Amino acid sequence: MENICKSPHPLLKMAEIEGRGRGLVSTQPLKPGQVILKDSPLLLYSASPLVTSNQQHKNTFCSNCYRVILQSPVSCPWCTSSFFCTSNCQSIALSSSHTPWICQSLNHLRNSLSSHNLIVDQQIQARFLISAYNLAVVSPSSFRVLLSLQGDPSFVSEKDVLLLHSLVATCPSANLGEFGFSKELTAALLAKDKVNAFGLMEPFAPDRERGVRAYGIYPMASFFNHDCLPNACRFEYVDTDVNNRSNTDIIVRVIHDVPEGREICLSYFPVNFKYSERQQRLKEDYGFTCNCDRCVVEANWSDQEDDAMDKDGEESEEEEDEEMEEDVDVDNEVNVNGEMEERDQDFPHAYFFLRYMCNRENCWGTLAPLPPDASPSTVMECNVCGNLSKSDELMVGAGDH
Question: Which of 80, 84, 87 has its CA nearest to residue 65?
Answer without folding.
Answer: 84
